[in-house]
Amino acid sequence: MEIGWICDTPYQIINCLAFVLSHSDKKDNFDLYIVHQFANSEKIEANIRKTGIFRSVNSFRLSGEEKGVAGCIKKCFRIISPKRWLQSSQISCDGICSIPKEYDILFVAVLTIWSVALYFSSNVKQVHFFEDGTGSYFRDLSGFQSRAKFVYRLLGRDLDRLNPCALYLNNPNLCQEKIDCPIYSLKGIMAIDSDSREKIYQAFDYKRDGYYTGYPIIYLTQPNDNNVPDMEEMDDKILTLLAGYGKDVLLRPHPRQKNSFQGDLFIDSHQDMWELVCADQITDSHVLVSVFSTAQITPKLLYNKEPYLILLYNLYPGLLPQMREEILGLIGQIRNVYTRPKKVFLPNTLEELKECIDYIAEDRCQNE
Predict the structure, then answer these.
(1) What is the pLDDT of residues 106-142, one digit of tens each?
(2) Helix/strand/coil (H/E/C) assignment for every residue in the chain
(3) What are the backbone angles phi and psi of residue 10, rounded to the nearest 5°?
């Protein structure tokens, strides 16, 4: 079979590598397409090439979007002639020199301009979705706005053809999305053999030095992508509160975090791939603090580990209010799959946040 994968985040690449290494068949040809929009993507691409997992590794970079008439012409060109547009954006390839005429399966995590263009370039027979994080569990993965559908149809492309034939998740039991296709379980890193796992470590230059085991509390920050009012002010209050716990706390900034952090908190100097850190350094005794992120539930999703979770979503009333019901529903689902549901906390105030941390400290002592 001819199988293509398109990835534009490290998390997607981790899931892709684990799947391919656990499902590889000598009769299958796997090609990887990487979109360069995350830190160290060029280095990761070079490392993946060295492993020899894929028939070819290809990469793209998006040029600046133009506005006005020129921008409209470029968008139309992308829709009418997707293969030529992809080739004009391609910055590296190996193994094959051009995009194949046909793929039996194209794996995508999110439908983007890249995945849509690749679909229409390669006469794809089936689209299979794979996990992109928490959003894959409760968002409409295959939906397009009516305007986009109209424009594509006007230019001879039918977006309805991209409906998924399968969805692969690390923990299908958590899925709240109603999707009209079978849902399968992804094989995680720990399910593959040690040699295959070593290839994934090599791809991300992972250092297994126990750095994160020295910090019982890890604060995973979130960028203000949605321009939430007063989010930075609440962030500062949380940082001040956590600073009171001294050397027990490690602050791990989000890759897209723009603001600098001041104060006495220890800031993650390693920035190792989180999904790999969770495999051998995060334990059931750790405390993961964040608004509500994929990083918090990664230990459970990938490795069935159950660290304490403190979800700060209710401290930010202006954050995604239109999705409040879905987010709270997923938090409830996480509690349900935990062996000890009381290890998942949802404080409403800063005072409750402090109470949660103090309670956890006592609970950890009793259960160690």
Answers:
(1) 999 988 888 888 888 888 999 999 998 877 876 666 6
(2) CEEEEEECCHHHHHHHHHHHHHHCCCCCEEEEEEECCCCCHHHHHHHHHHHCCCCEEEEECCCCCCCHHHHHHHHHHHHHCHHHHHHHHEEECCCCCCCCCCCCEEEECCCCHHHHHHHHHCCCCEEEEECCCCHHHHCCCCCCCHHHHHHHHHCCCCHHHHCCCEEEECCHHHCCCCCCCCEEECCCHHHCCHHHHHHHHHHCCCCCCCHHHHCCEEEECCCCCCCCCCHHHHHHHHHHHHHCCHHHEEEECCCCCCCCCCCCCEECCCCCCHHHHHHHCCCCCCEEEECCCHHHHHHHHHHCCCCEEEECHHHCCCCCHHHHHHHHHHHHHHHHHCCCHHHEECCCCHHHHHHHHHHHHHHHHHHC
(3) -60, -35
What is the dihedral sign for C-alpha 287, 298, 134, 112? positive
pTM of the predicted structure, to 2 decimals? 0.80
**Tokens, residue 168:** 């692969």
Say how far apart CA 159 and CA 186 lie, in whole Å. Answer: 26
Lowest mean pLDDT among 84-88, 179-183, 212-216: 84-88
